[in-house]
Amino acid sequence: MERTCLAVILAAGDSTRMKSSKSKVLHPVANRPMIAHVVDAVAKSDISAVALVLGRDAEEVAKAAQVGSVKIETYLQKERLGTGHAVLAAREAIARGYDDIIVTYGDVALQTEGPLKAARQGLAEGSDVVVIGFHTDRPTGYGRLLVKDGELIAIREERDASDAERAVKWCNSGLMAINGRKALDLLSRIGNANAKGEYYLTDLVEIARSVGGRVTAVDAPEIEMTGCNNRAELAVIERFWQERRRHEMMIAGVTMIAPETVFLSYDTVIGQDALIEPNVVFGPGATIDSGAIIHAFSHIEGAHVSAGATVGPFARLRPGADLANGSKVGNFCEVKNGKIGEGAKVNHLTYIGDATVGAGTNIGAGTITCNYDGVNKHETLIGANAFIGSNSSLVAPVSIGDNAYIASGSVITADVPADALALGRARQELKPDRATLLRERALAIKAAKKPKA
Ligand code: UD1
Ligand code: CA
After folding, report:
1. How many domains does the chain have?
2. Residue 227 Cα, ligand 2 centroid: separation in angstroms?
3. Which of 139, 259, 416, 430 gets the highest tally of CB atoms within 10 A of its CB?
């Protein structure tokens, strides 16, 4: 029979060490709040219910935690008296009676369902408390797992630890599983006689043992268990996240020449055989189809690049950019809310905003869609197989028909029908021999200025 499970997520901490105007669990990893990553992992652990313990910025955190279809109950921990006290804020949920309780932290952003399931397995095998530990060369700040004769006998917080205990490199991730039928009794026995005067959840180890309970530990990869107390640790978590996702993508068939320089968002989708050159940054909402090429130094957000399309180098795709098959957006071009049709080319120094560019159209260097009048945004519609001469300004709202030809340097303020040629610039004047005259005059002026010998 399936065991029932309540997941308690602690996210009430004051985040003092983060030195921030907002709770640390709201800080993003891969452009998504940490708490959302955690809820995602918990939701994959076959749980029956989620209790989210909130304190600072409760409303914002509850909102950021709403991902997918997981139903979340929120509990307020009014005073921050420690992790043991925090779990008891969800007393009502725990008292409903579950076979398993898992406790996890809102700031352990890279956790996956694997260790949570392993800890539950420990309960199923008869443990009353199963602590998830990890090995690290940088144990500073973490509680240490003290093991004797193969049993977990205690978790010692850094500030309460002796020098010998501090040398231990097996650390408490903070995540654990507790026998759901015994949890309330064990939790109520936690006191606050320690260096911080807090109710430490970690005391559960000694408490469970003192009443004859069985306590074990399971090991998890360090990368998944890294907690976030300050900005330096936030950067480490970001790095780990990026490394993990790039690796997954490369294994799935994406080519990255210098993966360590490519930055992905939590929802970046890249198809097989796409090529990502060095120094490319993906903001949220980017989808790159199979075989597309993203050249170096491009920034892509809220955009879709179809198969066989080419972007960059030095291109910026903003939300609503949609590049069809075989289209090209080249160096120093920006596309925002713009559809670039099949095989269309926007090769150099161009801004396409609130616009549609038809299939096969060529947009010359330096073309600007003037979409903003200082108050409102307007649309530019360009048909198929049109030619927009270099350095043209298309003042929206305006439409340019199929096969139309815009002369270079034009300022286009009125619609151009299909097949027409539009010239919107001063007519060229020609003055024969005038250049020679101008040069002679200039030389004469220069000669007059020279001091006489
Ligand atoms: C805790 C563990 C430590 C472990 C480390 C892993 C204890 C006593 N210590 O230390 O052994 O190695 O996590 O990262 O458990 N929180 C609340 N209410 C509170 C206090 C904390 O909700 O009153 C939440 C925080 O938001 C955070 C989590 O609990 O998500 C951990 O709190 P934090 O203060 O970061 O604990 P550490 O001192 O790092
Ligand atoms: Ca912590």
Report:
1. 2
2. 5
3. 416
